[in-house]
Amino acid sequence: MSELILHHYPTSPFAEKARLLLGFKGLSWRSVKISPVMPKPDLTALTGGYRKTPVLQIGADIYCDTALIARRLEQEKALPAFFPEGQEMIVASFAAWVDSVVFQHAVSLVFQPESVAVRFASLPPEAIKAFLADRAGLFSGGSATRLSAEQARHQWPTIMMRLEQQLQREQGDFLFGAASIADIALAHPLWFLKATPVTAPLVDAYPAVSAWFARVMGFGHGAASEMTAEEALQVARNATPTALPNEHFAEPNGFESGQQVTIAATDYGVDPVAGELLFAGSEELILRREDERGGVVHVHFPRFGFRIEAC
């Protein structure tokens, strides 16, 4: 069985989500550290241009976006379940809302000037400037719009008080009963805020939220061991992509298997990935592409939040 390889960097909130996913399942994995900013030549040799963090590699199969990474890890180990039976729609929809709306608020709050000054205090001014310029590019060209810090501060108490009330009234220790993808999705933007004393009070002021957050963080990160980017590329070159899912190819806009297309996120980080469309299922899209460094790989994307265009 191929190892689970996570391409990530320590301070990425969505990478923290992926690490918690691995910890929740109690999985062992290999850790490949990537740059927080472009260019990322070792990563894009595998993804074909997709630049968001994190990316999960299993042999010659490359999984983009934590929504799809969660579904792939669910296949790896069924229990404990990210999507408890009978609650699949509730927890998946809640997680998608968090990954867009709550995360957008957290980003605006983290990158307000007072927070940036503390968060990047140890970096030289040119490094801070380069990071902020990279993030400006990341959030351009897609449907996501940057929420102003003023509006994020204005709306944040509503989000948190709703969460506080929900947790105070829950009979169990987690949202919606049993722990699920909903808990992990909500924890990572709060983790992002708790990284500095400027924004930590936005979480710490809510006692039920703080207690719940500690329980979610208690899932840990599983068992990680370091791997170099070149080693990960070698794994991809030496592997054969797994068989396509046993599901009917269904593409309502008329795209066909074998067609040359591009797939890109619609919200932000909209860099297109070109390749041969192999599969379109209810949750997943798969492209075949070839790279001189990564070999033949299958790049997997969620259907939701991504678009297909003909080359």
A few lines on this structure:
With 311 residues, the chain is of the alpha/beta class.
Number of domains: 2
Profile the largest sheet: 10 strands, mixed
Strand order of the largest sheet: 5-2-1-3-4-9-8-7-6-10
Rounded radius of gyration (Å): 19 Å
Kindly estimate the percentage of residues that lie in beta strands according to DSSP: 15-25%
Q: Whole-Å distance between the termini?
A: 35 Å
Please tally the β strands and state the result: 10
Please tell me what the overall shape is.
globular
Secondary-structure arrangement, i.e. CATH architecture of the largest domain: 3-Layer(aba) Sandwich
* Number of continuous helical runs: 11
Structural class: alpha/beta
Along the chain, the helix and strand elements come as EHEHEEHHHHHHHHEHEEEEE
List low-pLDDT spans. none
Q: What top-tier CATH class of the largest domain fits best?
A: Alpha Beta
Oligomer: single chain
In helices, the fraction of residues equals 40-55%
Q: What does it look like?
A:
There is one protein chain. The protein has 311 residues and is an alpha/beta fold. The protein folds into two domains: 4-80 and 223-310, Glutaredoxin; 87-218, Glutathione S-transferase Yfyf (Class Pi), Chain A, domain 2 (Up-down Bundle), CATH 1.20.1050.10. The protein is built from eleven helices and ten strands. The chain has a ten-stranded mixed sheet, with helices on both faces. A hairpin with a 7-residue loop joins β6 (260-265) and β7 (273-280). The chain is globular and about 50 Å long.
